[in-house]
Amino acid sequence: MLRSILAIGLTCAALSLSAAQAQDNPTLEIVWPKAGTTVALGDDTERAIGVVVRSNFKLLPAGQCGEDRRCGHVHMKIDPDGDTCNIPGRPYNSMNSDFGGDLIRARFGHCPSATGRHVIGILLADDHHRPILVSGKPVTALVEVTTK
User: Fold this and answer.
1) What is the pTM of this model?
2) Using an 8 Å Cβ cutoff, are 56 and 29 in contact?
3) For residue 100, what is the DSSP state?
4) Around Cβ 39, how many Cβ atoms within 10 Å?
5) Cα atoms in the 13 Å half-sphere on the side-chain side of 14
6) What is the pLDDT of residues 92-120, one digit of tens each?
7) In the chain, is it the N or the C terminus that has fewer CB atoms within a 10 Å radius of its CB?
8) Cα–Cα dist 72/133, whole Å
């Protein structure tokens, strides 16, 4: 009986530890727009829309994290398999390193065609613009949308 109780206790402790470790891994998701959504583009020259992200990292302006290892910002690319939607001369379309927070501007006006099917890709970066890695892979999130 004592062995059974001990085994159950150890199993519960191991499950709790696994859950805690999973919670400790950096997370990143696109809250809006949702996958498959049709989104009206902005009337500005950049044809921008707001993209809302969520992370278990603090999202602050670059250079503001100090010693906090669970702090950074987001880099975004539209159609991340290529560079056609990047801001000219930049390796991204947008990032929130100037302001931090959970809102980032997707600038579809830099794409060859602002309207149509696009993939919004975001990457979690540290205070020095380096990708945050989990098991050697960058923490990213993707969502496919149609813009009009």
Assistant:
1) 0.81
2) no
3) -
4) 20
5) 6
6) 999 888 888 999 999 999 999 999 999 99
7) N
8) 12
Residue 37 is encoded by which pair of tokens? 């959504």
What span, in angstroms and rounded, lies between the C-alpha atoms of 9 and 34?
41
Find out whether 91 and 83 touch, Cβ atoms under 8 Å: yes
Query: What's the Rg (C-alpha) of the chain?
Result: 19
Helices (H), the chain: 2-24
List beta partners, residue 142. Answer: 121
Q: How would you classify the pairing of strands 71-78 and 58-59? A: parallel
Distances (CA, A) of 20 to 17, 69, 72: 5, 17, 21
Beta-carbon-side half-sphere exposure of residue 33 (alpha carbons within 13 Å): 21
